[in-house]
Amino acid sequence: MIELMRSWLKRYFSNPQVVILGLLLFLGFVLIFMLGDMLTPVFASLVIAYLLDGMVSALHRFRIPRLVSLVAVFVLFMACLLVLTIGLLPMLSRQIGQLLQQLPSMLSRGQKELMLLPQRYPDFVSEAQIRQILDLFGSELTHLGQRILTVSVASVRGLISLLVYLILVPLMVFFFLKDKVTILEWVTGFLPEHRGLAAEVWKEVNQQIINYVRGKLWEILIVWAVSYAAFKMLGLQFTMLVALLIGLSVIVPYLGATVMIFPVALIAYFQWGWGSQFAYALILYGVIQVLDGNLLAPLLLSEVVNLHPVAIIVAVLVFGGLWGLWGLFFAVPLATLVHAVVKAWFSEQVKRKADTGS
User: Fold this and answer.
1) What is the pLDDT of residues 120-146, one digit of tens each?
2) With contact defined as beta carbons under 8 Å apart, do 236 and 242 qualify?
3) Exposure pattern of 203-212 as b/e (b: 16+ CB <10 Å)?
4) pTM for the full predicted model
């Protein structure tokens, strides 16, 4: 067995470029997994700078000096951040507070509706089953209330952290954009010389990540805006909160759209009951998801490598479980990275066999 393992390792990992690629991937995984929470502002700044660098490069192609392009893009970014902080966050906070105030009456009404089910459908459900469901739901709400209380107690600390991030992230974004070449040269200086395979993988994945992140960001903004306009005209409560959640749900392919139908249906039901408005809300949500899945997403993400739906779902489950929201957002690029690594690895093995045979 030991000899078999030794033969396998010698066969596939005797190439120093393969070893270097595996080592770089391992170190990157350990860095993110072990220090992800502490380095969250750095990762967020890198992602934002990665997105804004495309705008800077686009302006620079029009023969605008890079420094002028950088300042213009950074001022636009700060203006958007200011609007988000001053305009959007208070509105979301207000709607969340209103939802929490109405939650007890919603729960009471839902409990009454559930208790009517044994009378209407005695052959399918009993009163004992309904009470068991209500007891389980009540215990879950108790745990949720405890978590909310814990968050509220730590709100001062969270507010301080938010203020620190609002200062650190824009500052790091500016320096990442300004000193991009210097930082890349500094990082490259620590890498081994024989990294041709790693460079080949990065070259293939880099364009896919750019296309995916930018396309997904535009998809979130468009779905958010369309959902807000549609539900605002319908008169649905908590419109901004619901629209934001629908926009963010596109981060998780397939699963996000399925999960979000439940809060939309519940809010519509508690506002209008069973009626035409309730049906219109669900129809609007269905139309938005159909247009997003069949028109918007293919249009924005047409240049991203097509992955099988099973591969995408597995990537969402694995990377989401490892890195939370960041893992969900980058599940498809990370799956593309894995695909590129495997393809490059096997291509290298085929090339080595061809060279040996010749």
Assistant:
1) 777 777 777 777 777 776 666 666 655
2) yes
3) ebbeebbbbb
4) 0.71
